[in-house]
# Entry
Amino acid sequence: ARSAGRIGVGNRRAGAVTALALGLTSLVIGGLHAANSAGGFGTGNGLAGAIFALLLGLIGMVLGGLALSRARRTA
# Structure
């Protein structure tokens, strides 16, 4: 058994929703930047950073979704 500590169920759910929102924001901004960048990798236009932002946004949304489903089960 784990102690709940200082984090309540409401705070866990709010954190999960925040992770989902920030992951979606990263996906949108990274996608827009990747679509508008001219040139390829190594040209200094930030295409590699935009693709990395897409990857991190996707990971954030997956982890946020898992945390949200876990927070719903414990509530």
